């Protein structure tokens, strides 16, 4: 019986660790064919080797989502290899948390480049193809931090995730006929994200809080699979999931 995932071609950004890697493994186990993007090529190659050894299909494309040409090439290589793409998961993101008063302006720039512009570049690469196919699915990974502002250390990160939810909601209403959109908004999930802060005090507090509360990355992988496996006329517009103990 078809699960509406088997044989679909999925492009996943930020597939070298955390949510992206776990989602790739889970979707491959359900029969999806994968195009995996991130900057750390060796990690992607190891993931491709694992998926292939388990009987799945995947390719790795070294990608910096802050570069539009890289994101175009990621999608183009997916189309070249598999003949089409069906789903784009805009998952790559960074979370260098710090109080605003620390003025980590370069990290603000980087968050805007990766978390917002990276998602927009993905949309720009996939939308014309989905429009031509009359089908497709764009899944954007936002955050609970895109619903409420975690002031004190997460203001700029929250701003980027509010932007992801806003552009995703607009895209849902503007998307060509047959194209689905989904926002995935997780709370604290076990990954490398909690280690991104360059501010020592913030980093220690964030890691301690995560260690006490985080849920496993496969909770997100299952949410993404749930959105994809629905019949094509069902749009799971947003999934919010978090540790029970998280506000
Ligand atoms: P990780 O740090 O484990 O993974 C982040 C991924 O993004 C890595 O694969 C990394 O790959 C990739 N990445 C970072 N910068 C770039 C770039 N410029 N170009 C391409 N890829 C990049 O964290 P998570 O798995 O937790 O994060 C995935 C997404 O989930 C992010 O958008 C994050 O904001 C979101 N999220 C996470 C939550 C959590 O608690 N973990 C909660 C809510 C949302 P590489 O370094 O190899 O490029």
Automatic annotation (TrEMBL):
Residues 8-192 form the Ketoreductase domain. SUPFAM superfamilies: NAD(P)-binding Rossmann-fold domains. SMART domains: PKS_KR. Pfam families: adh_short (PF00106). Keywords: Oxidoreductase. InterPro entries: KR_dom, NAD(P)-bd_dom_sf, Sc_DH/Rdtase_CS, SDR_fam. Belongs to the short-chain dehydrogenases/reductases (SDR) family. PANTHER family: DEHYDROGENASE/REDUCTASE SDR FAMILY MEMBER 11 (PTHR43115), DEHYDROGENASE_REDUCTASE SDR FAMILY MEMBER 11 (PTHR43115:SF4). This is NADP-dependent 3-hydroxy acid dehydrogenase YdfG. It comes from Herbaspirillum frisingense.
């Amino acid at each position: 019986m078809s699960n509406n995932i088997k044989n679909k071609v999925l492009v996943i950004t930020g597939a070298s660790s955390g949510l992206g890697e776990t989602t790739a493994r889970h979707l491959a186990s359900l029969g999806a064919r994968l195009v995996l993007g991130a900057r750390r090529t060796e990690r992607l190659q190891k993931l491709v080797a694992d998926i292939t050894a388990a009987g799945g299909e995947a390719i790795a494309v070294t990608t910096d989502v802050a570069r539009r040409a890289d994101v175009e090439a990621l999608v183009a290589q997916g189309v070249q290899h598999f003949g089409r793409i069906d789903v784009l998961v805009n998952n790559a993101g960074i979370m260098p948390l710090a109080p605003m008063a620390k003025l980590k302006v370069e990290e603000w720039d980087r968050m805007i480049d990766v978390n917002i512009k990276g998602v927009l570049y993905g949309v720009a690469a996939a939308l014309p193809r989905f429009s031509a196919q009359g089908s497709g699915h764009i899944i954007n990974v936002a955050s609970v931090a895109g619903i409420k502002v975690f002031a004190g250390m997460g203001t700029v990160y929250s701003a980027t995730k509010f932007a992801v939810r806003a552009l995703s909601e607009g895209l849902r209403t503007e998307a060509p006929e047959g194209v689905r959109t989904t926002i995935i908004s997780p709370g604290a999930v076990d990954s490398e994200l909690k280690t991104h802060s360059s501010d020592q005090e913030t980093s220690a507090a964030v890691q301690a809080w995560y260690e006490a509360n985080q849920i496993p990355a496969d909770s997100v992988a299952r949410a993404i699979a749930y959105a994809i496996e629905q019949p094509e006329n069902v749009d799971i517009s947003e999934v919010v999931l978090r540790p029970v103990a998280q506000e």
